[in-house]
Every structure is written in structure tokens, then in C-alpha cells.
## 1
Amino acid sequence: MADVLVNIPESAAPGEIIEIKLLISHPMETGFRPLADGTLQPRDIITSVRCLYGGETVLEVDLHPAISANPFLAFHLRVDRSDEIVLEWTDWYGEVQREVRQIEVV
Amino acid sequence: MTKVCTTALVILMAGPAQSDDRRSGFEFMGPTTQSMQTDDMANPGMLAVLAGERLWNEPAGLSEQSCQTCHGDPEGEMRGVAARYPAFDEVAGTAVDISGRVNLCRTRHQRADPLPHENADLLALVTLIGLQSRGLPIQPDPDPRLTEWRARGEAYYETRVGQLNLSCAQCHDENAGGHLGGAPIPEAHPTGYPIYRLEWQAMGSLQRRLRGCFTGVRSEPWPYGSDGYIALEAYLMQRAAGMTMETPAVRP
């Protein structure tokens, strides 16, 4: 489990555009870096990040080896109802990590 | 001889030593890197803080005690500590920086192995301790046993080294604000350590930063943990006395 910082407002007004920020502790090892013995350090990157709002996918991003370590994502979302916001990402080995927050729209 | 004197004079006049126009490396960065540092949600150094908080509560070594067991919450006893280090340790009979101090607690109090320099866990603990001084002025320890360390650090700072034959002062006092290749030359204030350096894509200690400056002038860096670094750290902290701590800083 990677350390992660998630910033989603706890509440918002109907129709408000909120900012969601996600900072994941991850080496984003490119797979191109030679080690002392000439072999390559195996690739270990996050391959995709998804945001779901009430079960509906509102953002889907593919990540590639050129993205720096500890990727930071910030994006906007218009909210119109109280619901669950899920951030989930998949790594090179297919492992999925998930952060769940609830937003109150009043 | 005259040349040496003029150089000394230039350093005296241009040196940021006591005046308020000293500027942290923060001031030399672009606005995007600055906002990365000031937004705790975007500052990757805060990931080290998270890891540090976890480690703070983890029992280690034969003592099976955690930092928390003896020190309580980091917000209490650790406030202002990083702004005061390096300090002199009575038992070890030597000056230590925060990393050295944490390792003393590991070996002496937790009866655990010391963590190697630049180990991610060690950096995380030191970053957590550093954060407890963020916003506070640097207040070097008045212990007279540190005077000699600072004097040695100052001597190193002014000595030309390496194939390029440059001293720290020649870059950081005489040419601060200028450029080296594409990089602005800052005034070398240790206000933000450990830092998250974009070039490293990782956290690093002041010693790692200093090693970079040694290799930059093609001088063989001392091994990690050498007294020379502690002396330089003690001098740099004295030179930055009163400036605001900003751990965890972001640097290019």
C-alpha cells in the first residue's frame, strides 16, 4: 500500500465545480534504467488512474514511463448530488489501490 | 596576498551573513515549483511526512519501543528541534545532525541497528521532525562546544576545492543570483531540509545536497556521515540564523 494524499472537499453547493487532487507515493521506475551489472531495473509504474462519481467513471487516465516519481493529479468535477467519489489506480503488476470519499452536496 | 585580501573584502561586502536581505533558495525558484512547495496537497515531501508519522509509532529494536513511547506526539517535544541542530551529544562526544541524532536513539535507546544515510525511513523520520520547526526561525544551539565545529565549517566554506578550484563562497556569496548553466545559484541556506528535489525525484538530506556541490566542482565528496559535513551544516545553520524553516522544501 502506497502512501497517498487525497484532497476532495467534504461538501459543495449543487452545480459547483470542485478540484480533486491526488498525490501518490510511487517510484514510477521507467524500466529503462541500467543497474551496475548492466541489467535493467524492472519497470514499475502506475498504468492508469480512474475517478468514479456515484459509480460512474468521470475520469480515466493512462500513465506512461515518462511520468515522474510520485505522480500528482489535479482535475475538476462538477457535482450535483451527494455521493461517493472513488479514486483508483492500477500498477504494472495489475494491483489496484482505492481511496473512497463521500461528498455532501447541499 | 592582495588578491586574497580583495576576495575577503568582497565576501564581507557581498556576504549575506548578518543582513536581512538573505534569501532562501525558495526565492530563486519559478512560481510553479514554489506553489508545489506551499501546497501541502501537492508537495511530495508531505508523503515522507506521512511515512514518518507511521514509523514514529512503530516499535523497533530489542527495546520494542517506538519514538512515541519516549517522546509522545511529534508536535510536542520535537517542536523547534530541527531549527536548533546540529547539537553536541554528551555521550558520543561529538556534534550530530538530526539524522545522526535519530540513529543515536535507534542504537542507544531502541537497541536497533542504525539506518543507512539517505535510507527512506530515516529521511521520513527526519522530515517529520523537520516539519515541527516549519515557520520557526533558525536558532543555532548556543553550546560553546559547537563553536569549533562552526569555525571548521566556515573554513571549508571558504576553501577552494576540486579540479575547478572553487570555494562554496565563490559561488554562493560572490555569484549568488547568477547562473550556473541553466540553474540559478542560490545563497546556500539550509532552511528546507530534508528537501524533495525534482532532479532526484526523491527526498534527500543536506549531506546529499552538499555532495552534489562537491562533485559539481569535481572534488571527491567525503563519505556520508563525515565530520566535515556536520561542520559545514553547523556553519550553514549559523549563517542562516533567524531565517524561517520551510521543511519539507521542494527544490529543482
## 2
Amino acid sequence: MSEAHGGYYVPHGSHWPLVGSVGLTTLVVGFAMHLNGSDIGLSTMFAGIAIVLIMMFGWFGTVIRESESHMYNEQVDKSFRWGMGWFIFSEVMFFAAFFGALFYARILSVPWLGGEDASTHALLWEGYSAAWPTNGPGAMGGAFETVGAWGIPAINTLILLTSGVTVTFAHWALKKNNRGPLVGWLFATVALGFLFIGLQAYEYGHAYSDLNLTLESGVYGSTFYMLTGFHGMHVTIGAIMLAIIMLRSIKGHFTPDRHFAFEAVAWYWHFVDVVWLGLFIFVYWL
Amino acid sequence: MTTATAHEAHDDHGPARGLSRWLFTTNHKDIGTLYLLFSLLMFFIGGAMAMAIRAELFEPGLQFVNPMFFNSLTTMHALVMIFGAVMPAFVGLANWLIPMMIGAPDMALPRMNNWSFWILPFAFTLLLSTFFMEGGAPAGGWTIYPPLVLQTGDAFPFLIFAIHLMGISSIMGAINVVVTILNMRAPGMTMMKMPLFVWTWLITAYLLIAVMPVLAGAVTMLLTDKYFGTSFFTAAGGGDPVMFQHIFWFFGHPEVYIMILPAFGIVSQIIPTFARKPLFGYSSMVYATASIAFLSFIVWAHHMFTVGMPLAGELFFMYATMLIAVPTGVKVFNWVSTMWRGSMTFETPMLFALGFVVMFTIGGFSGLMLAIAPVDFQYHDTYFVVAHFHYVLVTGAVFAIMAGAYYWLPKWTGNMYNERLGKWHFWLSTISVNVLFFPQHFLGLAGMPRRIPDYSIQFAEFNMISSIGGFAFGLSQLLFAYIVFSTIRGGAKATDKVWDNPEGLEWTLSSPPPYHSFTTAPEVK
Ligand SMILES: [Cu+2]
């Protein structure tokens, strides 16, 4: 069926990538049609999401079965590690684009609009005095208030940092082959992850209905929601992955020296954690 | 386990039969072939747009297309050539060659390899379908600057999502290259023994992983600015359209090196073979490549000298940009030194490699001219820029890809290409490409703006000459397609070494090589 070449497992043909391409394309075509005002856009998009989910079940299922039947040697394991590491780096760069936008607005474009270092503002926006937070000289989206750092965001920081600790406890338990504590600490991590998402959702609701802080609130609203939104999406994905790892731990998939999937998800979780620290400092606090 | 159908059809050591071989393949050679053929197709589609552009510019006045469609043509020509032709061609070469060069059985992550490729046909179907949408294809230039690009019609979200898909494909392809090079080398193949093509691709892959996500972020912000009320690029909300340019060129300048570093690698493989001398200054080549990659992250605003930057910014980006000439110069001198007192022969791959060295250097020099901020105020957005980057990308990247295709085609197919036709292809291409692009330097210096379908009559002669060169160059490439396909179909049998005494593990395999490259790792001394 599939061969080992010098021990390195090279799988033969797979239809999952093509299913993935069809799914992704359906998803984005649906979304694009929706944005262009089509009635069937959203349903097409959800069909695409469904196809992508089927692909992920099938593809990861195949990999898990192969792993469980010991087809991967140490070199394959190393490939997965390198691959996951560089994938996370690409995610870091994705967030870097939005952090870059935040810093550019705060350090350059908003002060310039207020008249610092440039004179063009006088032609269009005379009288605008630069400050942060701002929704710009056009007061886009109307007056708004910001979410204070020392309420829910601080609690959320504690939650995520604690979850970083619990996932490490789970790792230690796994290395000592104690399945009970492993599953327990993983459960705690997943619970903290979903608690974070719940609080974040509550905070969004509060911001939209009480503070008039919306996506349309100028560059503050734009950077606030895009950064926290993409972060929240990553927390959700991470929490789902952790839940799957928990189920696999219950099934006894991991051994003290072979548990790449666990570590990959743990790395991802720490990455999400670190991004949050950046958010807490630069979006909420300073 | 993966698919019943794919498995019924294949025996253990050969490819599956029929269409499923190509749709489901996890084999680096099959995927390399798919990439290269896709790239060739895109080269002709983008080329057809270029022909229409040159036809419109043959004479002053409006001839064939309306101005809006002309703008779509320039925009789509660039997107198709960059993301559809040049980048996939390099990934195709990487797929074919890296496992063979480092003594590996295949790429490290074969299923993901298939996905990297099979996203592309879908992405380009989306992109090209925008020609038939309400409002036409994107026409704001490939740099998609707001606020202009936000005026795109129904095509807009399709443009954004096509770029997202291309980005996903590139990132997965790059991760695969990095992992393969770091983890799949045969015992004894230390980093500093790797062929330069492998080195340049390793560094290119890092650039891809670092900047494609930034482009994804930038286009996502465009999308939300247009449809979800954000103000990233709107001054009224505290944003800035110039911010887009900064983010875009933080991607865009490394992207330029993504399209040229693998070309350096190819040329560094070919010149030693036909000069019959080892490459001069191997380690300096590696360090020069790494320096270029590093510098590429801190020069982006040389694309924006006229946008109204603070003086300190102008100066920093000017000097940093000129610094790149140092490692690039090291490379050119090393190639020349490799040839010094070599016993040279001039088969087609060598001709293209030499053409690359000479004409890429011309593009490098015009780049230096553009790097000088006060002078750039004159050149900015003129045909001088167009001439510059076409020297770098056509006589640079594309010539290197063709050199590589001629060099390795006998290895891939087991058949020799027709040397006489190859030489014809080289000379026709080289003469016509210079007739095409050299006059554009003068047009630009005289003030002809780029991306405009009509022009003042003093530009008429040089535009006509340029168009004639363009048509000749376009037609010459049909010869390339003919040579490639006739070599695939048959021809004189190639030996395993193909050339006189080429360096590298790929030449120790049979021509064509077995379906799985190195089933047992070779000894590297
Ligand atoms: Cu540049």
C-alpha cells in the first residue's frame, strides 16, 4: 500500500488535498458572492466550510491511523516538528501585519493627521487634535468608549496564562505516563480556553451595545476588532485542537516518547498565549 | 489507506495510471511536472495579455481596447506572471530537483506537497474569471493600492480571495522545502556541501514564510475596509492609504528576491558545468544570498520615494537599497571568475545562463539608478521602471528558468532536446527581448508614464520598436513550447550524466530517474 524508503514513510496518492481545494474554493466563492449581494452566497460558503471540515477529518484521520500503526519513524516525526514550527512562524507574521498597522496608526498616521511633521492635514482636517484612542478626524462610527484593561481583559490574561501552565502539567503527566492527570489537566486547559472565548464574546457584546465601540469606530475599532478577532479565532481553533488531543489521550494514543500531536498543539497554544500578551499590552493597556 | 481508487491502480514502484496519478499524486517529480506545466500555461496566458498591451501601444491613440480594459490587462498580466508563471516555475524546479540533489526519497511532506499545487489551478480560475464579471477584472495595478483598488466591481472579493489561496499554496510549498532541506539530506550532505540551488531555495523559502502572511494580512484589511467599515486606509478614520503601501512593500520587496534567488541558484549550477571548473567562491555565494535576503526586509520603501516620506526615511531606504549591490556584485564576480580560464562550451543552458548574467546585471544597474531617491522622483512610475523590472524578471528570472529547463530536461525525460532549435530559441529571445525592453529605458527617461494606453506622439518610434520586439519575443516562446513537448515525446537518448562532467547527486541517477529518487540514501563524501 505505501512504502518505507530507507525507513522514511512516503504515502501514496491521496484525494484529501483535492477535496481541500474544492472546499476552500467553494468557501471563498460563496463568501465573495455573498459580499457581492448574492442570495446563495452564504449557503455556498457553509457548504465550503463543511467540505473543508470533512477534508480535515479524513486527512487527519489518515495521519492518526498511520501514526498508530507505527509507520512513522523518528525522521518523519522530525519533519512534522519542523513543519509545525514554521507554520506557527507564518502565523506570527500574519499577526505582525495587524500589529504593524496598529503601530503605524498610533506612531505615524494619527499624529500626522493632528499636524505633527506634515502640513497636509490643514487642508482637509484642520482642527483635529491627535489622541489615542481615536476614530479619526471624520469621527467614524460616532463617539465611543474603550474597554478598560483591568476588567475582563486582565482576567482573560490570567486565564490564558493559567492555561499555559495547565497544558505544561498535562505534558509532564504524559511524560510520566500518568493518563489520569494528563486527561485532567487537558480538560482544565480546554475549559479555560472556552472560558476565555466566552468572556471575550461577552466583552464584544458589551462593547457593541454599551460602549458604541464597533468595527466601524475608525482606526481604533479596526485594529481592536481585527487583532482581538483573529486572536479569538485562533483561541477557538486551539481549544478545539486541545479537545481532540484530550479525546486521543483518553483513547491512549500517546506514549511518553511519541506524542508529536500533543506537542504541536501545545506549541500552538503557547503561540496564542504570547499573541494575547502583545494584545493586552498594546491594545488594552498602553 | 488513503484512497481505494488510487491504490488499486498503482503497483508498488511506479505511478498510478490515468488521471488519478496527477490528481492524487504525492510524488515530487509528478508534482514538479504539474507545477512546471501550469507555469508554462500561465506564461502563455500572461504573455497573451502582454501582446494585447503591446498591440495597443504600437501607435499613439486608442486602437484595440478601451482604457479600462487596458488597465485590467496590465494588472492581470503582472499578477498572472508573478504568481502564476515565475513562482510556480521555481517551485516546480524545487520539487523536481531538491530531493534528487540532497539524496532524499521524496519531499518531506508529500501530501501537503500535492495540496500546494492543487490550490493553484483553483486560485487562477478565480482570478481569471474576473474578466467576465460586472465591472471587469481588477484594474488598479498589481500593487492593489487603496483607495483606487476599492473601486473594483464584483471582481474585488475574488481578487482578494485568489491572493489568499495563492498565499496558502506558497506558504505550504515553502514549509515543505525548508523541512525537506533541513531533515531529508543524505548522510554526509552537510549544509555547506549542498548545491547552491538548494541553498538559494532554502533562503527563498524563509522569505516566503515570512512575507506571504503579511500580504494576506494586507489584503484582508482591504477587504474589511471595503465591506466591513474598517478604516485602516482611510484618513477620515485615522488610517492612512500610505500605510497599505508600507505593508504591501514589506511583502513586495522580499517577493522580488523570491523571484530571483532561485534563479541565482540555477545559474550557479549551470556555469560550472560548461566552464568545466568548480564554482568560484562557494561559501561567499551562500553568505551573499543570505545577506541579500536579510537586506530585502529593510529596503521596502524605495518603492515609495515619491509618496511623501520624512527625509530620514528617504535616506535610510536609499542607502540600504544601494547596499544590496554589494552581495549582488559578489555573485556576479563569482560567476565571471568561475568562467575565467575555463574550457567553455556554449550549449543552450549555458547561453541562457550567460544571457542571464549580462542582462540581469543591466537590470541591476538600472535598479541602482532607481535607488537614488532624488533621481527616482524623475523615474517613478515611468517606463524606466518597467524596463528595469522586466530586465530583472524576464531576462533574469525567466531566462534562468529556461536555462534550468534546458539543463535538466534531458535528466527529467531521458531525451536530449534539439540543440539547434535551442540555440535558435536563445538567440531569437535574446535579440527580441532587448528590442522589446531596451527602448523602454529611453521612453521612461523622456517621461512616458507606465500603465497608460495612449501617449504623446514624441514617444511613437520607440513604442513601435518595443512592440515589434514584443511580438517577436512572444512568437519565439512558441518555439520553446515546441522544443519542450517534442523532447518529452522523444529524441536522442540522454546519458545519465547528460553533460560533460556535471556536479551533483542528480546526475548519478538514471535519465529519466526512477519514480522514487533515492530509495536508499547515497554516500556523500
Ligand atoms: Cu524593491
## 3
Amino acid sequence: MIELEGLTKRFGGKVAVDNLSFQVRPGVVTGFLGPNGAGKSTTMRMMLDLDNPTSGTVRIDGKHYRDLPEPLKYIGALLDAKAMHGGRSAYNNLLCLAQSNRIPTSRVDEVLDLVGLTPVARQKSKGFSLGMGQRLGIAAALLGDPEILMFDEPVNGLDPEGILWIRNLMKGLAAEGRTIFVSSHLMSEMALTAEHLIVIGQGKLLADLSMADFIQQNSRSYVRMRSPQQERLKDVLHEAGIDAIDVPATGTLEINGVAAEQLGELAAQHQIVLHELSPQRASLEEAFMRMTADSVEYHAHAPGAGELPPGAAADNPARPADVPAWGAGFDATHKGGK
Amino acid sequence: MSSFPAVLNSEWTKIRTVASTTWTLVAALVVTVGISAGLCTLFNSTFTEMPKEQQLTFDPTLASFVGMSLGQLAMIIFGVLVVGTEYSTGMIRTSLAAVPRRGELFLGKLTVATVLALVVGLATSFLSFFLGQAILGEHSTGIDEPGVLRAVFGAGLYMALIALFSMGVAAMLRSSVLAICILIPFFLLISNILNGVSATRKVAQYLPDQAGSRIMQVVPGAMDSGETPYGPWGGLGIMVLWVLASVLGGYLVLKKRDA
Ligand SMILES: Nc1ncnc2c1ncn2[C@@H]1O[C@H](COP(=O)(O)OP(=O)(O)OP(=O)(O)O)[C@@H](O)[C@H]1O
Ligand SMILES: [Mg+2]
């Protein structure tokens, strides 16, 4: 359990973290979300006692980080993948960390194996690709077999395979009952891994809620139907007392609050041919952008870029083409509340 | 509390697994011994051509350490890199996450690096001395002559202290490049120029290298060194004060600043 109380960090006149109080509960993946410059990395650095808070405290299992006897055995953190000595081999970089916390040397080989770096263990880490560097950073975080793991934007700059690997790793670690605190500025990424969400903007806490609640509050789910007998379908739906929204742009109907199964059976009863019957979910990314819109510091001032990015307009029923793609992925992987 | 031996063990691994440790320490030894030997050869062959007073104040012990004025530069680079690369690589965050009590990390790192510098420094000074004396032949001195052992031992101490001083400076500046750009010109040129000009000598003789190198001298006033208001150990004491100030400064910066 990590507890933050009134955590504040000022850099000169700039408030990077503003009176943050929240808890990271054990045994779940907590997503730490915020746009660029929101203060995520600064908060994480203060959690590890690297930056001194201007005010407020962070406690880990009731203790200050610097009072943890051998901290790598409590918390493993990946803040910056490049935070290793490039002239040292991957093995030796991990070895000196292990020794400082009296972690058995055999564990170094174990974590190298776990992240798939065994073949390059004796190579200097400066030759590593971004993905290999990230894996080395994760190996360092896992070194002390800690109950709490903290990752700052672990998927940044990774290819799809690397992203999938980290996602599965985090899920696996959470399944073992570990506490995982992971930052991102991508809601879509969080939706796939996190059970709890903490959202900040300009250093302030904007939301602290379960992923399920966030989805319930922020996403509209509906069923999309398309039929060559569109007019008959509309009539049937109308007779059944179901509201259908006509979306001429795509030639589809959108139905709120009725399960796809029920709609399919209804169409079958009336022998209506369906070309599409698909459950849809409105983009969580859009909900996140709406939430943080006021606190986004660095807007793109390109012509046409307004307060909200295109496609984030509140209740536009015509979804951009890319939305269902991860919406569907989300459906498949989220555990549907807790 | 994580145990201090564990920190020492970790710092030892850090120091022995980077290439810069080997090349800086080997350079410190080779440059010192090599240049000293070369100059001893020169002294030996031109001894009779020296002015009379120089012949009288000829200090064979000090003569066998003249290469140290360049060899110490490699020691300075060693000291700077030990601390500075933690910052340039970003490793400092990883290190502090592992050992969050900053004094403990700093003390561990400085202890390991200084002991290593001392071992290499003593190897350098003894090697340089014996090789120099062998070359000087009839002008040489022996290790059992008064003050000689102290000078040879002191030369090794000097090497370790200059490295430690550099570690403190690098920790204050939090950058290898900056520290090297300040320390090398300072010890290579500025300190010597200030000490060479009689107007500034009164102050310059209190600089760490000028004061500290007094320990290597057996014959007072040898090699135009002039009179000093302190003896060999007094000079080394002044250097130790500089080193303490630098280490304290480095510690305070590490302690107070965000990593
Ligand atoms: N050492 C520093 N000195 C001055 N300002 C800083 C420092 N570190 C961070 N900041 C400022 O504090 C704010 C928060 O930065 P931080 O890196 O914590 O954001 P972030 O949420 O991690 O952003 P990103 O998603 O881009 O990584 C930014 O405005 C940044 O410019
Ligand atoms: Mg960041």
C-alpha cells in the first residue's frame, strides 16, 4: 500500500504536483493517467525519495521510502530505461544493484531470463535498443522480487510486440497479487491493464475510481445494426418499443440499452436479414480527453485543433473508424468490473 | 538499514566493471613512472652542468616524482568519472532507489574509490621512487635515509587525496564534463602559474596540490620550490582540509538536491 498525502512539488514558480492525496491499493494494477507534463514522473520520483516534496508525504506500508531497510525488496521501479551505465554489461548493471540490497546473485540470471535478455547479458548496455533497454529496466525492477512495482510509461516507444509483452507481464504480476502502479498518457493502454484509475492534470487529482466505474460513467455502449431491409427493421424495432437512432452517414442504426442477443432474436423472428449486429463502446480515450481538456498544458495550436481533438466531440454517434478496434479489445480483456 | 558492507560490495562491482577505471588508473601509474624515469635520466646525465646551488639542493626523492604533476591528471579523471558518470548516465536514480540513504551511498562510493586510488597511488610512488633511484645512480638516495620513506608514502597518499578531492568536486557539479573542464586546467596550469609568480605565491602555496606535494620533498627548497610556512605533514594537512571541504560540499549537494 502506497499512501500519498498532500504531496506538492514546486519547481521555481511552477507547481508540478499540487496537493495530491491518494492510495495505491495492493493486489491490483492502478493506472496513473495524465497528459504530458501533468506531473506523473515527478510524483513517482517523489515516491522513491529521489525528488524532495515541497510539502506532503509519501508512505510505503506506513514507512518513508528511505526508511525501508532494503528497498528493492519492497518496491521495484522503472522510471527511465536509460538509467543504467551504458559501459557496463546488462549482467553487471544488475549485479551491483543486487549486491547493494543483498539479493542473491543467482537472482540476476533469473530476471535476465525472465525478460529475455540472457543472450545479451554480457553485452554493454549502451548498444541496446529501446526495447532491450526497457527490458533491462524491468529486470532491475523485478530484481528484489518486490510486492510493489512501479512503471513510468513502460510502453513508450515500444513496438506492438514489446507493448504486448509488457501488458502481459503486468497482468501476470498482478495475478500473483502484487501491487502495480503504472503511468501512461494513453487511456487505451490503461483500459487493457488497469483495474483502478488515478487521473491527474496539471498536478491536480482529477479522478480516483475503479476502471469499471470510469467506464460506466464515461462510455456509452450501444449496438450497431445494418440491414438491407433497413425500413422494415426500423418498423419492427419501433413496434417493440425500442428506440433506434438513424445514422445516415454509415447507413446504420444505433440502439442504446438493449442487448445484441435480444436484437438479433427480434430480427430473426421477423425474418429480417442482418448485415451487421455489433456491440459498440464509445471511446474511453475521448472521455479521458474531455476530463483533462481543461488541464492540458501543451495544446497543439495547429489550425483547426480546438479544445478537443477531432473525434472527441462529446456525443457524436458516428465513431471514427479506429474506435471499435480497441473498444473490442477492451471488451475482450477487461474483467467486467470487480 | 541496509548494511554498509553490502553498499561497499556493490560499489566495488560498479568500479571494477567499467573500462574507465582501468585506463585512468593505469595511465596514472604509467605516466607518473614513465615521465619521472625519463626526467631522472636527464638529471643524471646533465647533473654536472647544473648550477652549483641546484646541485646542492638536488632532491633525488622529489626528482623521482616529477612525473606525478601529469600523472595526477589521470587520477583526477578517475575521481571525476567515478562520481560523474552516475549523473551523465542517469544511473544515480537507479543507485539512489537501491540505496536511498544518500550519505551511505556517497560514503560507500568514496571509500571504495579512494582505497583503490590509494593502492594504485602507493604502487605508483614506490615504483617511481625505486626506478628513479636506480637511474640516478650516484646521485640517488635510499629509502632508509631520513624523510625518504615519509615522502614516498606521502606521494601515494597525495594521489589518493587528489582523486578524492575530484570526487567531491564532481558531486558538487553533478557533471563529469564540467568537473574535468575545471579541474584539469586548474591543476595543470593555473595552480603552477600562480605558484611560479612571486606575487601570488604566498596564496598559491595554500592550494591543495601545492600544499600537498610538500610531502614528497626531502630537501627543503629543492627545485626552486621556495620556502613554505608549513612542513611536509602541515602541507598534507592543508590538502586534507581542501579534500574535506570538497567532500562535504559534494555530500550536501547530493543530500539536498533532487536526483
Ligand atoms: N527538474 C525539473 N525542473 C523544473 N521543472 C520540472 C522538472 N521536472 C519536471 N518539471 C515540470 O513539471 C511538470 C511535470 O512534469 P512531469 O515530467 O512530472 O510530467 P509527466 O506527467 O511525467 O509528463 P509526460 O507524460 O510528458 O512524461 C512539467 O511542466 C515539467 O516541465
Ligand atoms: Mg513523465
## 4
Amino acid sequence: MSDLKPRYDLAVIGAGPAGLAAATLAAQRGLSTVLLDEQRAPGGQIYRAVTQTPVKNPSVLGSDYWHGADLVGPFRDSGADYAPGSTVWSVSRSLDIGLSRDGAARVLPARHIILATGAIERPFPIPGWTLPGVMGAGAAQILLKTSGLVASGNVVLAGTGPLLWLLAWQYLRAGARIDVILDTTPRENWRQAMPHMGAFARSGYVAKGLKLLLEVRRKVKVIGNVTSLKAEGDGRVQSVLYRQGDGAEQRLPADTLLLHHGVIPNINLANATGCAQNWDEAQRCWVPTVDAWGATSVEGVSIAGDGAGIGGALAAEHRGRLAALDALHRLGVLDRATRDRDAAPHREALDKAQRGREFLDTLYSPAKDFRVPQDETIVCRCEEVTAKQVRDAVKLGVSGPNQTKSFLRCGMGPCQGRLCGPTVVEVIADARGVSPAEVGYYRLRPPVKPITLAELASLPKAEDEIAAVMHH
Amino acid sequence: MFQRLPNASGERVSFTIDGRAAEALSGDSVAAALIANGVQTCRATPVSGAPRAPYCMMGVCFDCLVTIDDVGNQQGCLVRVRPGMRVETQNGKREIER
Ligand code: FES
């Protein structure tokens, strides 16, 4: 890692739209800037592989995807350093970043840090979701973007949310076949979303979104009002069982089942850094608490993009620029008035990009039966803990997710609660009859990603400095 | 089951899966390369021995753990496939240290 400087004014973590835009602006304005990213190429998940996708026909992935190239170009010219393949496992309150790259670990100090860790798919726990052949719709989209791979055989999509429909549209464009889409959007969501229709209608997404929906519905059988889902198979998924409304259970053959239930902020790094967080009732997830610039409760640490609450890719780039301007101000490069003046166009663009968000949040809010799964469903994939075990623990007096860790090892596996935390919170809240806000979330500790002893041993730093990063 | 789009372009990479010769495209992650070669499971869980395959493809779920060039428990979706790479699925009881 000799290509990295010993320290930076600004370190940005995550090379999606927020991180790319933040690093570009900061470097253009003279900050020594590094962009650290776990992936091997820029773009984050939304613009994944935009510089090198094997899918050369531009109409398959769509023009919104190719916009990512407009962010990568200026970033490359900005003078910011770029460290792909870097896994960040710790950010301390003293602004030291613990990272691993090519099998070696190091500690990188910065004067300001912007976390742009983006979103993950909301866990969608149904019976059988751990079977091979069941994956996230987002995962299938990554396979399409990075490798030109599409599911074949009997393909079933199930769930709700814009990404599910976008993936279906991209599959059809690519010439792939989808047997059925099982739409789990609750009927009453339409009624609840209607008051937000006006703002959504003015958002500019409407025409595009409707066209996409109609195109998919013309070509694929869509079964609506799906109220239960189950994957079954011997060693891998072979069929999907579902119910429409209160109807009888139906069975479909499936070689691949792609699940989607919306996206939530990827909060692990912010949480382990000690950033305050709050429960977002509309988006039904925990989000780090930030101000209008993305600043967190930890001095010198900001969050930009979906990692601070889901706003979408376009909003993310504006949020990245706002966070970068605030970093310039905090580091003494811009006075307050200049920061505010320069931020004005980005704020206006952000407002425009976020218009209609309430409509989407309300319409695609997942049904309770899928957020609070039935007893036999595995909630924690790593430790294979079921919803029943969590409920039984509540009966024994467990009141929050941190206690389920010691009771059940739930959340102690390598994913560190990323795929069980949201469900465990919902199950406990439901069993106790309180809001998830009262239940809380896992208190996470660095390292937020497993690091090997060999990587640790490669740390060139003194032991007390390592200790500071690991147990602050 | 996944298949490559007929017009997917890219350089071919030769590597091995559990000792057998296999081919991938240069932009593939190890997890994508396994999927492209019809490998249905990457590992068995340490708790019950249940088979698992990549679920998230973005470094979140750890269901893609494989052994790469003799180093175990690598997240296959985060590592790019390289010529000559030796990938082994983890269907035994080797588990991630925790
Ligand atoms: S497939 Fe989820 S971590 Fe690799």
C-alpha cells in the first residue's frame, strides 16, 4: 500500500455516487483526499462495473445506470487518490481508519472522514431463504452488471420495491426469461401512499417508472397481493409456495428465486464508530443521526448518501457534495458563508431528487408478515437462529437485540447482524408490543469485518495505536 | 442456474474449481465465476452442515466463503478471479474463526 500517503485531509469510504461526488469535489478544492472502496472498480452497487461491464448493449442496463460514468470521469481527473480493494474494518473517534488491502492491514489517519457506505438489501426472511438458488434481486443485478450472467430455467421474482421491477425490466431487455413475479406490495399501501401522489407526480420519476412497470407487466405474469412465501427444495430451491390474499397455498417450480424487499442503510461502520442513530418509522430501519450536511454525533465523521437514510442514487451524489463542502469548512478551507453559497445549487438539486420519496417509501413499505416472520423461519443466517428462538428468548426476559447475542449467538456470526439485525429488532418489538425505537439495535464493535491474524500482524503501528482502533 | 448472455464480452480466464479446470471472464468475482460454471453450493454451514451459495454478491452475507489458493474463508464475491487461481468449495466443517 505504498501508493497511499501517510495521512490525508479527507478520507471517503465507499465509491458509490455519494463517495465519488464527495471525493471529487474535495480534491478539486485542494484537500488531499483518498477514496477507499471494498470493490475493485468504482461505482458502488448502483453503478457497479460501470467502467467495465461485459454488457455492452447500453439499452439493457438503461440510461440511469450509465449516468455513473459521468461521476467516474471527473473523479479520475480530480487528483484524489483511489484505493480499490480496501476493506475498512474500523473508524475510530480519533479519526484513524483501520483497513486491509491485498492481505495486509494498516492504520490510516485523516482529518475528516466521510462514510459513504450506501445501502444493503433489507433482509427478507422466509422459510427456505437460505437454500442455494435463493438470492437477493440486488445480487442478481450485480451478476448481470459485472458478469453478464442471468438466471435461467424457472425464474421467480418475489417481493416489492423499485429494484425488483428494475431488475425484471433489465432481464427482459437482456432477453432473459422470468416465469412469474410474486408481488407482495400490501393492498392498503396504495391507499396510504395516495396523499403523497402529488409530490411524486412532480418528481419526474413518474413517467419513467410507469413505462417500466407497464413494459414488465406486458411481458411477465404478475401475481399481486401475495401474503406468504416459502422456498422448498432438497439441497437447493426447487419450488416456491405462495398464497394470494387468504387463498390456498399454490406451488410454482423454481430453479432460482430472487427476493427483494427494498433497501436499508448499511450502518455497521457508523454504529461501530459510535455515531448516534435513530429509528426511521417511514423507512422502517435504523439510520445514523445526521444534520443537513451529513455530520454525525462524532466530531469529524460525516455520512453521505443512502448510508444516512435511503434517498436514492441521484440524491446520494448531491449529499456527497454537501458533505464535502462541510468538510472543507470544518478544515478551515471555506468560511461558513462561502460553504453555504456554494452549497445552494446542490441543495436545490437534492430537494428535487428527493421529491416523491414519501410516495415510494409508503407504497413499497414491506408487509408486517414479511418483516416479522413465522416461527420456523431462520432469522440469523450465520448462526441458524429461528424466529421462534428469538420469541422464546423474549419470554425469558430478553428485551433487546444485544441480549439475544449472548442468549442465542444471534448477530455474533461473520455478517455481524447485517442480515439478522433488522428482523431481530422487529420480532422483539412485536413480541413486546413496543416500537423498534424502544428495542434498539446491536451495539457493534470494531472490527466490523473479520480480519485475519496475518493481517493484524502486518500492522506497522505500535500496539497502543492498534488498541485505540480496536477498542475505543 | 445462471447463464452468460451470448454477447457478453471480455477476456477468458482459466482457473480451477476443486481441482477441475474452469473458465471465467476477467471481470468476474470468484463467486460469479463459480455460478457461471454451474457450481451450486460454496460451503456447508458450521452449525448444521446446510449447503449455502452466494446470497448478496456484495460482501454482506458471508455465504460465499471459499478457499482461494489455500487460504480459507475468503469472501468469493469480493475477490476477482485470476488466471491459475485454485478455488476450493468449503463443504467440510472448516469454519470461519470467531
Ligand atoms: S455473496 Fe454475500 S458476502 Fe459474498
